[in-house]
Amino acid sequence: MSQVHLELTQVGIDFPTPKGPFNALRDVNLKIGQGEFVSLIGHSGCGKSTVLNIVAGLYQATSGGVVLNGREVNSPGPERAVVFQNHSLLPWLTVYDNVALAVKQVFKGQKSRAEMRDWIEHNLALVQMTHAMHKRPGEISGGMKQRVGIARALAMEPQVLLMDEPFGALDALTRAHLQDSLMDIQATLGNTVIMITHDVDEAVLLSDRIVMMTNGPSATIGEVLPVSLERPRNRLDLVDSPEYNECRSAVLRFLYEKQKKIESIDAKRKAKKSWAQKLKITG
Ligand SMILES: Nc1ncnc2c1ncn2[C@@H]1O[C@H](COP(=O)(O)OP(=O)(O)O)[C@@H](O)[C@H]1O
Ligand SMILES: [Mg+2]
Q1: CA within 13 Å, CB half, 59
Q2: Fewer CB within 10 Å, N- or C-terminus of the chain?
């Protein structure tokens, strides 16, 4: 690995709940190199977003901590841009102004007004949103909002890009297009990326390493799979690549054999019971 850029050491978190503290994560240890692309994958509810929020500085770890460039992370900062799972645009601002807000925050005093405008338009063009830049979030589709969120994050030129299932809600063609753009952009800018995904193909295509999480509560890192496929990567060529397919199988085995969701059977049983009770009451 190149120089360590971001380091998670013994990260754990307890959430306060009415029934007492809920231990969502424990002993999360991960060193991420400068410019490395890491994916987090794991079943729903295991704690992926929580890890990302701790790195973003939005949640405070109960134990352990995060160090970026040798400094402890305790609060959010513009060097760590987040693309949230559910796009988080300001509804009263246009697409252009949503990106402009972030750009002004980061480049105030560094870029002229004209340079800022060019930069905003460049980033909107990257995600193919030029045509709708004067629309408000309420006037565009969910996938488009997600693209604006990505443009906004990229426009900040963050050292670390944190993405929570950024392409999950997009149609397959748009997703493929944005995955390719993201690979290009990352190759050019060399930023460090942590991306949460539930898409095994996406994880293998984009990542240098895939971090696979165990089921919660007290979730932690189960396995880490290096993906050493040569870059630039082409999705069509990879279909026939034995290494690609081995990586894919390794992740699938982890998710569906080693971390099978036993809880889901439990949940089904509970649901059945509660329905039975309801039927008794009403019937
Ligand atoms: N703010 C919170 N308060 C209490 N529990 C939380 C909070 N955020 C997340 N959790 C719990 O922590 C666990 C992990 O959540 P999350 O990180 O959102 O999972 P994932 O992103 O992998 O689906 C879940 O059981 C969730 O209910
Ligand atoms: Mg999540």
Answers
A1: 21
A2: C
Quick one: how far is CA 203 from the chain centroid?
A: 11
Structural domains in the chain plus CATH codes:
4-79+158-280 (3.40.50.300)
Query: Which one, of 12, 9, 10, 5, lies nearest residue 68 by Cα?
Result: 5
Q: Which residue has the tokens 């977003």?
A: 49
Name the residue of 19, 22, 40 whose CB sits within 8 Å of the most ligand 1 atoms, as the mutation to test its pocket. 22
Task: Report which ligand 1 atom has the smallest distance to the Cα of 42.
Answer: 22
What is the whole-number distance in angstroms between the Cα of residue 175 and the centre of ligand 2? 18
Per-residue pLDDT reduced to its tens digit, 122-158: 999 988 899 999 999 999 998 899 899 999 999 999 9
269: helix, strand or coil: helix
The count of other CB atoms within 10 Å of the CB of residue 129 is 22
d(CA 220, CA 212) in angstroms, rounded, equals 9
User: For residues 36 and 5, is the Cβ–Cβ distance under 8 A?
Assistant: yes
Q: Measured between alpha carbons, how far is 176 from 54 in angstroms, rounded to an integer?
A: 28
Ligand 1 binding site (Cβ under 6 Å of any ligand atom): 15, 17, 22, 24, 42, 44-50, 216
Summarised one tens digit per residue, pLDDT across range 18-60 is 999 999 999 999 999 999 999 999 999 999 999 999 999 999 9
Nearest CA to ligand 1 atom 4: 15
